[in-house]
Amino acid sequence: MKLQSVFKLLFVSVLILGWIVNPNSSQARVQTNDLHLPIAYSKERAEKITHVMIHFISNAANNPQDPYNVNDVYRIFLDYGVSTHYMIGRNGEIYKMVNEDRVAFHAGKGSLPRFPAYSNNMNDYSIGIELLAIGTRDEMLPVIPAKSYDSISLSDIGFTEAQYRSLNRLLDDILDRHPFIKKDRNYIVGHEEYAPNRKTDPGKLFTWASVDFSQKHTVTKGETLWAIAKKYGVTIHDIATFNNMHSSSYLQVGQTLRIPAMYTVMSRDTLWEIAQKYGISVDTLVKWNGLENTYLQVGNRLRVPSGTIPYTVKSGDTLWRIAQNYNVSIDTIIKVNNLNPRAYLRIGQKLSIPR
Ligand SMILES: [Zn+2]
Questions:
Q1: CA 109 to ligand 1 center in whole angstroms
Q2: How far is the CA of 242 from the centre of ligand 1 (A)?
Q3: Which of 47, 93, 100, 130 is catalytic?
Q4: If you measure from the C-alpha of residue 83 to the centroid of ligand 1, how many angstroms do you get, rounded to a whole number?
Q5: Is 317 among the domain residues?
Q6: The whole model's pTM is what?
Q7: How far is CA 217 from the centre of its chain?
Q8: How many Å separate Cα 325 from the centre of its chain?
Q9: Nearest to 85 by CA among 167, 199, 21
C-alpha cells in the first residue's frame, strides 16, 4: 500500500471511530419531532456556538383563531426565508427544524452590547429556539391588526408551563454539548435584546425567572464538596441546601448535584439591569446575596433565583406567607403565575415558585 493510501485509510478510520464514540454530538438527546426545513434554510457552521437566542412565533396574523397550527407556522418559515434550530409547541413538544451543526437564520440584524464582534452575525454563534406564543397587545400590534389580536383566545396569549419545562430540558441538553455557552443571561438571550428596534420577542409575557439557570455537576473520583463549591464560586452551604443534603454528606462518584444559578458581574452592570434580566426584583437580588450596598465589582458572583418549583396552595396560605417561605418577592410569584394580585388564592391551586 502506498503511504498516501495508508493516510487515507487512517483518516477514514478516525472519522468512523469518532462517529462511533460520539455519534451525535450535535444532536439533542431530549426527544424531538422532526420538522426539518429545506437545506437552503441554513448554512454550514464555521464558528463556535456561544449563545442561545429565545424567540416566539405564531400564525396569529393570518389565523387568530388557530394561531398554533404547526403546518401553518412551518409555512411562515418557508415564506420569509427564516429558520430556527428548535421550536417548542404549546404542550411542550419540541420540534427539530435545523441541525445544530448548521447555522439557522433567526437573529437577523442587531447587536449585543457585551459582544460587539457578533454585530449582525449572531446566527453564526448561536442556537435559535422559537416558542409558539403570542405577546402582549402592544408587542403584537406592529404585525397584527388590533381587531385580530382582540379575537385571540386568552389561553393562546403568553407561554405555557409545559413550554418552560421543555425549554429547561432542552437548554440542559444543549449546554451539556456546548461548553462555551455559559449558563447565564449574557449567553442565553432574547431576540429583543439583540434587535430592540425591530423585535419584541420573547417579550414581557416571557418569565425569565422560569428559566432554570442552575447547573448540573457530576461528581468525579476524589472530588469534595469544597472543591466543587470552589469550582463554581458558590459556598458549600449553597450546594448543600440546594440539593437538600447535609454539608458533610459523603459524595458518590457519578452522583449529580445541582449548582445554584449564579451570575458573574460584567462591566457596566447594574443591580436593576441584572434583576430585570432574570425577571426578579432588585429587592430579591439584594436579599438573596445579603448585599449591603448596590456597588458591584466586575467578576463578583451573584446568586440568582431561577427555574421554578411547583407549589400547591394550602389552607391559610397567603401570597405574602408563601413569598416569605421561599424567599422570593410577591411580585415574582404574581408574574410567574400570571395572577391577578387582587384575587384570592384557592386551596389546591397550583403555583410555580422560582428557586
Ligand atoms: Zn425572534
A1: 11
A2: 34
A3: 130
A4: 10
A5: no
A6: 0.81
A7: 18
A8: 26
A9: 167
Q: Average pLDDT per run of 10 along the chain, which is 355 residues long?
A: 56 49 63 96 97 98 97 97 98 97 97 94 98 96 95 93 93 93 94 95 91 91 93 88 83 92 90 89 82 86 80 90 84 76 85 75
In the chain, what's the furthest Cα-to-Cα distance?
Answer: 83
| Beta carbons of 73 and 37 less than 8 angstroms apart | no
Please answer whether residues 192 and 203 qualify as being in contact, where contact means their C-beta atoms are separated by less than 8 angstroms.
yes
- Domain, as residue range, for 163: 28-206
Centre of ligand 1 from the C-alpha of residue 218, in Å: 34
- The answer as to whether 46 is a domain residue is yes
Environment class of 146 (CB within 10 Å of its CB; exposed 0-12, middle 13-18, buried 19+): exposed
From the CA of 131, how far away is ligand 1's center (Å)?
Answer: 9
**What torsion do the CA atoms of 142, 146, 148, 151 make, to the nearest 10 degrees?**
130
In a domain, 125, yes or no: yes
Q: What is the count of structural domains for the chain?
A: 1
Residue 266 within any structural domain of the chain: no
User: Is 130 a residue of the active site?
Assistant: yes
Q: Locate cell 434583576: which residue?
A: 275
As residues whose CB is below 5 A from the ion ligand 1, the structure lists 55, 191, 201
Whichever domain contains 195, its CATH number is 3.40.80.10
CA-to-CA distance for 304 and 300, rounded, in angstroms? Answer: 13
Residue partners of 264: CB distance under 8 A and separation at least 6: 184, 233, 299, 300, 301, 302
CA of 54 from ligand 1 middle (Å) equals: 7
